[in-house]
Structure formats: structure tokens, C-alpha cells
Amino acid sequence: MILVSKGKIAFYWAGSCGGCEVAIVDLDEMLFDVLENFDIVFWPCAMDAKYSDVEAMDNSEIDVCFFNGCIRNDENKEIAEMLRAKSKIMIAFGSCSHLGGIPGLGNLSTKDETLDYVYKRSKSVVNDEGTIPQNSTDEHGNFIGIPELREYVKALDDVVEVDYYIPGCPPPVDVIKTALLALISGEVPPRKEVLAPDRTVCHECKKEKRDMAVKSIKRIYQLDDLDPKRCLLEQGILCMGPATREGCGAACLTANMPCTGCMGPPSMSELSENCEQGARMVSAITSMTDVADEKNSKEEEIKTALDEIRDPVGVMYMYSMPKSILRRRRKDVSDRD
Amino acid sequence: MSVIEINPITRLEGHGNIKIFKGDDGNVEAAYLQIPELRGFEKFCQGRQSELMPQLTSRICGVCPIPHHLASVKTLDEVFDAPPTSRAVAMRKLMHYGYFIEDHLLHFYFLGGPDLLMGPDCEPGKRNIIGIIEKYGKEVALEIMKHRKYGQNIIKMLGGKPIHPAFGIAGGVSKSVNEGQVDEIIEMARSCVDFSKFTLSLYKEKILEEDFHANAIGSEEYSLKCFNMGLVNESNEPDFYDGDIRITDSEGVEIVKFDPADYLDHIGEAVEKFSYMKFPFYKEKGWKGLVESRENGVYRVGPLGRYNASTGYSTPLAQKEGEKLEKMFGRPCNMTLAYHWTRLIEVLNVSELLLELSLDRGLLLNGDLRTPVGKIKGKGVGCIEAARGTLIHDYEVDKNGLMTDVNLIVPTTHNAAAISLSIAKAAQMEIENGVKDTDKMNRVELALRAYDPCFGCATH
Predict the structure, then answer these.
(1) What pLDDT does B166 receive?
(2) Residue B192 half-sphere exposure, CB side, CA atoms within 13 Å?
(3) Are B1 and B29 in contact (CB under 8 A)?
(4) Which residue, B7, B248, B442, B454, is the most exposed by fewest CB within 10 angstroms?
(5) Measured between beta carbons, which residues in chain B are less than 8 angstroms from residue A172?
(6) How far is CA A284 from CA A237, A324, B251, B360, in A?
(7) Rounded CA gap, B334 and B193, in Å?
(8) Nearest Cα residue to A233 out of A263, A203, A204, A210
(9) Contact check, Cβ <8 Å, A17/B400
């Protein structure tokens, strides 16, 4: 897309936290470049256009739509469909729309379990009547409804066609800038690409690696003597770096904390068809695990070494549960399309 | 009967819509704020490894990730019986103050503030940061961006990234600032003090005297009498990181002051069918629904709630500004639009606190960053003031360090009833005899934007 005249751009959030919106605000001076090249026609977080304004637009009237957030309820899906129809290029922006994100962990429970806990059983709730928010409600004769939660969380491309992905929680500013410059200049890569570099976080991590074997994985609060200059994984901290796409400058590692995997897996993984970040991580750990002790089988050794990973699913699919081979808790309860 | 719908409400964090029902005479019969989203953090955080909670819960809100991160790690300090070292607390406060500056400025210049800086009836396409750049010039815009960035930079220095940083560990933090960074923070804090003064003078010059605002701020329709709540220090001044929770009534009388760990004795949450947002209330009075009454447990938090629940500010310049506000509008001040002024006083308050802390090199550059964890106690409550108000995290953890129970009461949730009442009152004033003036609909939203609501956060 080469912009002859000013293009039209939209930013939207579905099941999200707003961090992706703040990441746009964090473009700072580059916002001026965006404004020079695009009219922002829809951006609920920062501007006053309403759904009715989008409805009134022609199909494909918007040049680029940056869509963040997962598909958690009916409204998320409806707006995704509307914006898809109105946009030439649809970008899944951030971990939630890319892979389901942290709200995707909601797939470890059913919708009813979630509603039941949040509205009836959480500690501070006083709800003798057992009220749960309803799709359709009669409030003193006024009929008002709220969107229904869908049975499970989905990523954006599970409900509409997506042209590009910009990963991260939220996407790093440099990654956004590169993508925007490509859009402005018209030098966009083939569709379906993830618009970020394609190696692992380890490649941009400055911590010293000694190719040492890992004896066992520990929890970060259990280790008081971490060396901030050395690879955290080699010191026994589960760091998702080997299974995660680079582009963030190993940001969390610069704060002496392990990578939690928000950029998703790089595409070079042979397992990436299912976005199998977890499988990739398991293979990275097992290849590093110390199995010198001949008395026990390799399997036993690895099992012991990994014993402290008490919630492997939550740790290794923190951002990609809906796109993993696990997907959701109960496969017999199917979601509506 | 007919319905006016505002969907979605805009220039705030999260989703929501307003439905206004008019009777046959054209006047407003009822107005509802509905929050259509729920992600279910209280449920899906169960079973997770507890050390990930500061990062998981920061995703409740990308606009206010820092208070979630810090409330969470304060809860883990309790759970793991590891009181943080004084240097760790100082690092957390640096991050928290940086966050406050950034978040409050975001509201005044990008989200709710444009209503006032551009005028409430300005054309919708200009009622935003772009309008502000045009009206106030690129130079002012660059100053706004620079000072927001200062806040973000401090967060990044410590947590690696400005949004959703990684930093807190039970008993402390993972990183400190170095000597060069302390120098940088001192300079940034000085500049933020100056920029707070500039912003306050802009507020007084462009907003306080402006016709609509001058008429609206003191009006009954833009006022709400209810309880107020906030964390205070020993002198009953707002404390942003720690302290006791103080509740005052609409006359300013202290009703109760308690340790946040006892919050369940004082705060309950009601559930209504028409919204995913729960409605917290002061238990002593109970939940009487969406009515304004001294006998209803509705309360407000956030900058105005803190002003009303306290007796003064903890730093000299902010205190002086607080006195000006008090002289003009009194204390307590039940005027919803005064949220803006108190918010800007807090930017000054926090900039002063940041400067004071950054000058304490001895504290910032020496000592341990972590207390080794003790035996898992298994339970903990962590409370902090976020930009939008009091934030409570309450966890239970098993012997393997896995989460077994999570309860969260988030600032905008505390404000749920107050915001709904303010919307209904503003709608009644602005819609008379069936006149639906599209421009005036923004005045209904203006009442809710004063709170700087965060609805994704509020339903979590």
C-alpha cells in the first residue's frame, strides 16, 4: 500500500487491558508522523467516534486497523467482524489478539465456573440472591442487556481473517515503529507475517551463557544469590527466552527477571504451526538438563529437575493458551462460531 | 418511552455504554452505565505460580499496571513472610511515583482533560490530544510527551519496560537504580515539579474560569454526596504506597480508619444483573442500590476521594495548592468536576515526593534489595493507592506456592456506584423535555470522565 493521499487508520481493543493503547501513545514524537500520513478515524481510548460512525463507513474504507485484545464475548466478535469488513489491512496487535494473551488462561476454566466464582464465591461479594450479570435484563421496566461471555477465549484470527501480526505484551515501541514505517512507505512484507524479528530472545539477551547444564529448576523467590550478569536459565530459573521471539531487547532480562514469553514463539520452530511455545520450551529445558547421574534414567532425572515447575501449563502458555494444542479445558464443550 | 444510547463511552480505559431512558414527557426516567466485559482474573489466577502474580495482575490494566504489580508484590511479602528491605521499598516508590506522574498526565492531556481544555461542546473530532496539539501548539505537546516519558523512563529503568514491567519479588525487588540514574531522576523530578505548576496554572487559566465549568462545578447535578475513602499516613495525609484506609462521610467526619488487612469487615461487593462491574459498598451502611443517600454505603476513591478522606497533603507545594482548593470549594468537596483539580495537585505532590526520595542517595544506593523469604504463611492482603484510587489484592497460596484464592477490589470498581449516579444526574440536567442535543451528550460522558475510569480494570 503506497499512500498517495492521507490514509485512514483505526485502533480498537477487544478483551484487553489498554496496554496496547498506551504503547501507541508511547510512540510520542512519532505520533506526529502518524498524523501526517493518516487520519485516525476510530480510537475509542483517545477519541470520540462511536460504533455508529464505524457502521456508517464504506467497506474497506479504513486502510489499516490495529486490533488488540482477545475475543472473550459476543461484542468483541461483532466489532472484529465489522472492523474487518471496513478495513483493507487488519493487524492483530499485541499478545491477546495474536495468541489469546493472558486472558487466554481463562480457557483453563469454563465460562460458568468463571462467572460463578467472580460473582458468587469471591471473598468480598455479598450476593444472597446469587445474581449473575445477564445477557438480557429488565430493570424497572427498562430492557437492557450486556454481551454474553463466549465459552472460551479466542485469538483474532480464529474469528476473522488477519493480514499481519504485531506481537508482544504490549508490542515494543521499536517493533511498532518499524511496522508503521513499512506501512507508510508501502514496503510491507507478504501477508500473514509476524512483523517482528525472527530469532529468540536469547539472541538479544546480554547475560553471559556458559553452556552449563541445569541441575534443577527453582522458583525465583527460592534463590537469594542470583548472579544478575549470568543466564538465568543456567542458574535454574525458568526463563522462556529460548522459546520466545526477540524484538523486545530482552526487556525483562534487563530487569534481572526471566522472560515470560509475551512475544510468542518464533516461526523457525518446526512446531510453530500450533504456536507450540510450551513444547519448544520443554525441549529447550530437557536439552540443558544435567543427566550425568547414571543411576537414574534420563526420564527420572528430568522429572526431578522439573519438579518445581508446579504449573507448567500456566508458565509455558502464559500468553498462548488459546493457540496451543491444549486450547481449553473441556474439548467436549465446543464454542459457537 | 425512548432510549438514548452512548456506545461506546470514549476517552477512557475499557468498554462501557450508557443507556438513558426517557418517559413520554421526554424527561429522563433512568440512566444506566453498563460495563460489557469480564476477563475473569480472580478465577484464572488460581492454580498459577504465585511469583507470577505481579506480572499476571499487571495485565488487569495496561494504563495502571504499576499499582497492580506493586499491590501484588506487597501481598506476596505477606504470604511469604518477607518484609521488604528499606531499599526495596524505596525502589518500589520510585517506580510508583513515576507511574503516578505519567498516568495523571495521560488523563489530563489525552483522556478526560480535553473535555475541559477544548471546551465540552467543541466538535468531537477535536476533543482529544490532536485538538490540544492544534490549540496549544507543538511546543506544549512536546512538553506533555516529555514529562509523561519521564514517568515511563523511571519505570523502565527498574522494570525493563514501561508497560507491564518485571520487577517485584516477595521481600523486595530484582533491580535497583545506579548512581547515574539517580542523577537523572533528580533532574526529571525537578522538571516534573515545574511542569505540574505549569499544568495547574493552565487549569486555572483555561478551565476554572470558563463559563460551562464555572456554572457546572458547583451545581447539584455535578455533585454527589457519599462517603470517601483513601489510604492515609499517620498525619491523615494521602499516602500512595502504604498506610491505613480512612473513610469519611459527606460532611468530612471520619467514620472509620482500619488496617487494609481487615478490609472484609468494612467493604462488601454487590452484584447487579445489568453490568459485569461489581458494586462495592461500605458495609456498616449496606447496599441500597443506585440511590444517593446518607444511609447508602456508596463511596468515592481516587484524587477527590483522597482529598476528602484526608486533612492535607504531605509536601509543601501541594499543601499550598490544596489550601487554595479548600478556600474555593471547601473540604469535603462533593463536586465531581473537582476530581480534575485534585488530580493535578497530586501530580505536584508526587513530583515533590519523587524529588525528595531521589535526593536520598544513602537509601537508594546502599543495602539489600531482598529479604529472603520465610515460611509460607499462605495468606496476605496488599493495598496501595493507584491513580484512580484504593487497590486491594487478597491471596491464598498453598505450600507449593500455587495460588488457591484470589480476591481483587480495583479503584474504578470502588467508584462503580458513584460513577453511575453521577451519569444519571448529568443526564437529567442535560436532557430536558425530550431535547436530545448530540453535542450535549458529551456532557454526560464528561461526568464520568472526571473519575478517570478504567473499566477493563474494574471488571478484571
Answers:
(1) 97
(2) 37
(3) yes
(4) B7
(5) 161
(6) 13, 17, 63, 44
(7) 27
(8) A210
(9) no
Cα–Cα dist A196/A175, whole Å = 6
Contact status of A200 with chain B (Cβ, < 8 Å) = no
Report chain A's C-alpha Rg in angstroms. Answer: 22
Q: Which residue segment(s) compose the domain that B180 sits in?
A: 83-223+336-372
Task: Using an 8 Å CB-CB cutoff, list chain A residues near B39.
Answer: 15, 72, 103, 106
Name the burial class of residue A299, with classes exposed (0-12), middle (13-18) and buried (19+) by CB atoms within 10 angstroms of its CB: exposed
Report d(CA A289, CA A311) in Å as an integer. 19
Q: How many CB atoms lie within 10 A of CB B291?
A: 10
B441 is a domain residue:
no
pTM score, two decimals? 0.96
Whether B348 is covered by a domain: the verdict is yes
B259 residue type, one letter: D
Q: Which long-range contacts (CB under 8 A, 24 or more apart) does B430-435 make?
A: B431/B4, B431/B20, B431/B22, B431/B26, B431/B27, B431/B28, B432/B26, B432/B27, B433/B25, B433/B26, B433/B27, B434/B22, B434/B25, B434/B26, B434/B27, B435/B26
**Residue listed under C-alpha cell 518464533:** A266
Give the DSSP letter of residue B312. S
Number of domains in chain B: 1
Chain A contact present for B56, CB below 8 A: yes
How many CB atoms neighbour CB B378 within 10 A?
17
At B97, which CATH number?
1.10.645.10
Interface of A with B in 50-69 (CB under 8 A): 50-52
The answer as to whether B155 is a domain residue is yes
Cell matching residue A126: 455479598
- Between positions 155 and 174 of A, the ones with CB within 8 A of B are 169-170, 172
Q: Which domains does chain A have, with CATH numbers?
A: 7-101+153-185 (3.40.50.700), 103-150 (no CATH), 201-323 (no CATH)
B148 is a domain residue: yes
For residue range A68-120, list pLDDT tens digits in order.
Answer: 999 999 999 999 999 999 999 999 999 999 999 999 999 999 999 999 999 99
| A219 near B CB under 8 A | yes
Q: What is the pLDDT of residue A294?
A: 52
Q: Report DSSP state, residue B394.
A: E
pLDDT band at A212 (very low <50, low <70, confident <90, very high): confident
Number of neighbouring beta carbons within 10 Å of residue A175: 24
